[in-house]
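Incident review: delayed structure delivery

Summary: a single-chain prediction request sat in the queue longer than the usual turnaround. Root cause was a stuck worker, restarted by the on-call engineer. No data loss occurred. The affected request and its eventual output are reproduced below so the record is complete for anyone auditing the incident later.

Affected input:
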Amino acid sequence: MDESEDVPKDFIKLRSEKLSVDEVSELVVSPYCGAVSVFIGTTRNNFEGKKVIHLEYEAYTSMAESEIKKICRDVRQKWPSIKHIAVHHRLGVVPITEASVIIAVSSPHRAESLEAVMYCINILKASVPIWKKEIYEDEYSWKENKECFWANSEK
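Output delivered after worker restart:
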């Protein structure tokens, strides 16, 4: 395969079905890259001493996809050697231990893909309109991302 045939691609998906780490990481594999870095955000069973039953996510889907595309563009400007980027986020109910978000990035060398994955999750949490509700045993709470720029601008 000629490298021109393996053009950089972004794979963005918001879905209610269970996410697959294998599926997402395979999307970014390239014969021209020696690194695939993956971040998996999962549902934990506790928050500040409360037992979490599950999470529920909602999104302004078209805007969320647009914001994720911007993040991918920013990644490519900061790390020009990045080949492929995949960002999959689950919507609806996410049980304990299952993935809420999977981000995978490929690059010729590990440093760029590791840095890009961290950048992606941090900016996603700060700018993408996806909201999380934590369901506890006897109550629930909509969670605000502390990184979220619009939440901080109102204070």
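Verification: The beta strands are 9-15, 35-42, 46-47, 50-59, 84-90, 92-95, 99-107, 130-136, 140-143.
Action items: add queue-age alerting; document worker restart procedure.
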